[in-house]
Write a structure and sequence with these properties.
The structure is a single chain. The protein is mainly alpha-helical and about 350 residues long. The chain contains eleven helices and two strands, in the order αααααααααββαα. It has a two-stranded antiparallel ribbon with strand order 1-2. The longest helix is centred in the middle third of the chain and has 34 residues. The chain is elongated, with a radius of gyration of 28 Å. The termini are far apart.
Length: about 350
């Protein structure tokens, strides 16, 4: 019995030794979705083409919007049709496109950086959620955040060009102070200093958060809803008309929320500049603001709350096709170039 008894603990210990050890829990492996250098270059090219084409298509309305934003109570430009006719009569068809070249010089890198940054931020967020929750699907809130960050980065990187473009757009035939982009930049630097290139930057940052953020969030959310509604598996199955509609709705929503900040940006860019005297003066002197708050307060006090929405109608006519064209052109160019990743992936 003693021998049997001595064998029992040995067999028990051997059984315990033969039991498989529990492996420590492992995290889900997430396949990297980062693009190659070639894909990044193609994406930047597609973004630049989309920006240049979309803005050139609506250049006369863009100039009219800025002129209406800057003017005071003089009301030289009273409506869309009257404003376009006035520009055509006083400066010709070429005058209607004034500032578009500078705008393209600005918007091409702006659009390229904006689209690429949004895709990179969305991809990083998606990878993070896939690793932690098992699902990489982005919510409208995360798309809004990615779009807002992309807008701030792109706008800040190209803001001096936007400042120069605004000045070139506002100056009219009889009161031209700048001969082109380089001359305008040199003159502003010499007369007003380097900080002048960032006049109106703060309201631009505040305004770009809802504007660009809503553009991307609404566009992607509407496409996702259409895919589920019609049982489609790939967004490339959506027609160009459907994507244009999504882009138009996204553009109108974003612009409405951010528009007062766009008005403040333009007015601050023209603040103290003699070239805008015919459009906006006070007591015979050119209007100058001390900052964003002063601009808002004086504009509402002197011209009423509606002044914060001057030029909104030509802007609607401009931004709806512009945003729609930009999104669709971007995706189509990338598809032609054979880029595998898309905005929503």
């Amino acid at each position: 019995m003693s021998a049997a008894a001595s064998l029992e603990p040995m067999s028990a210990s051997s059984n315990r030794a033969e039991e498989p050890r529990q492996a420590p829990p492992t995290q889900a492996v997430v396949t990297s979705t980062r693009p190659t250098f070639s894909q990044i270059c193609k994406s930047l090219f597609a973004g630049g083409v989309a920006g240049g084409l979309s803005r050139t298509a609506v250049a006369p309305l863009e100039r009219l919007k800025i002129l209406m934003q800057v003017q005071g109570n003089e009301q030289i430009y009273r409506g869309v049709w009257q404003g376009l006719v006035h520009m055509a009569r006083t400066e010709g068809v070429r005058g209607m496109m004034k500032g578009n070249w500078t705008n393209c010089v600005r918007i091409i890198p702006n659009s390229a950086v904006k689209f690429l940054t949004y895709e990179q931020l969305s991809r990083e967020m998606s990878d993070h959620y896939r690793a932690t929750t098992g699902s990489g699907e982005l919510t409208p809130g995360t798309r809004l955040l990615a779009g807002a960050c992309a807008g701030i980065i792109a706008m800040s990187a190209t803001y001096p060009l936007d400042m120069v473009r605004g000045r070139l757009t506002v100056q009219e035939g009889k009161n031209q102070q700048y001969r082109g982009i380089v001359h305008a930049a040199r003159t502003i630097l010499a007369q007003e200093g380097p900080l002048a290139f960032y006049k109106g930057w703060l309201p631009s940052v505040i305004g770009v958060v809802p504007y660009v953020g809503l553009n991307f969030a609404v566009y992607e959310t509407l496409k996702a809803m259409l895919l589920k509604q019609y049982g489609l598996r790939d967004e490339r199955e959506l027609t160009i008309g459907a994507r244009l509609g999504c882009g138009a709705i996204a553009g109108s929503m974003g612009q409405t929320v951010a528009y007062p900040f766009d008005v403040a940006r333009r007015r601050l860019q023209m603040s103290g500049w003699q070239g805008a005297k015919d459009l906006h003066s006070h007591g015979g002197n050119v209007v100058a603001y001390t900052g964003m708050v002063d601009c808002f307060v004086r504009t509402v006090r002197e011209e009423g709350m509606q002044a914060l929405f001057k030029g909104l109608w030509p802007n609607y006519l401009k931004v709806v096709p512009s945003i729609a064209i930009a999104f669709v052109t971007y995706e189509q160019v990338k598809e032609w170039l054979g880029v595998e990743f898309r905005i929503s992936e």
